[in-house]
Amino acid sequence: MDIRPNHTIYINNINDKVKKEELKRSLYALLSQFGQIVDIVAMKTMKMRGQAFVIFKELTAATNALRQLQGFPFYNKPMRIQYAKTDSEVIAKMKGTYGDKEKKKKEKKKPQELPANQTKKAAAVVPAAPVHPPAAQVPDNPPNYILFLTNLPEETNEMMLSMLFNQFPGFKEVRLVPGKHDISFVEFESDVQAGVAKDALQGFRITATCAMKITYAKK
């Protein structure tokens, strides 16, 4: 029986060597292009590592993410994505169906089901970074196929930026600067394609406190 579409997608086959905080930030950077993310749930136990739940506010966002990122190479492993079996508690409360679900659970509780307080300990619920308006216009150089990124958080890595810019046509590569975590270069095939990515991601927040600044690199 097929799982009914809902706001929450379940992702597995994730590289289990990725630290939980980095995983959450990378998933947010990759998936926020599809719509507002309510929560990201990353498992901590050994048995549940390499898995995550991403809860979208809109059903269409969850559907688009599932279709477009199925098999996407995420930390060198293809993502396997499906709808979660049920809506998350957050979405159920928004829909007003949370009480119905709780009633059904009490009426027919599985023998092996863990109490609610234990299941909460097994997963770390991390609120998605807030959506902020684009940063103020920054001084720029003439159009160029290479972009210069500044104000990046310390934990930024090549994979994170690649996933963010890979959604735009013409993307070629990310080049980090050794010894300087807060700047990077991103190369596209043409200055027009670079400009599209620049306008779309200007002010994007990889973390809640760092709004990315993007200019054309000096020729």
TrEMBL record:
Superkingdom per UniProt: Eukaryota
Protein name as it appears in the record: RRM domain-containing protein
- InterPro entries reported for this sequence: Nucleotide-bd_a/b_plait_sf, RBD_domain_sf, RRM_dom
Gene3D superfamilies, alphabetized: 3.30.70.330
Q: Report the leader peptide range.
A: none
Q: Which GO terms describe its cellular component?
A: spliceosomal complex; spliceosomal snRNP complex
Gene Ontology BP annotations: mRNA processing; RNA splicing
Q: Which family does it belong to?
A: Belongs to the RRM U1 A/B'' family.
Give the UniProt keywords, A-Z: mRNA processing, mRNA splicing, Nucleus, Repeat, Ribonucleoprotein, RNA-binding, Spliceosome
Where is it localised? Nucleus
Q: Does the keyword Nucleotide-binding apply?
A: no
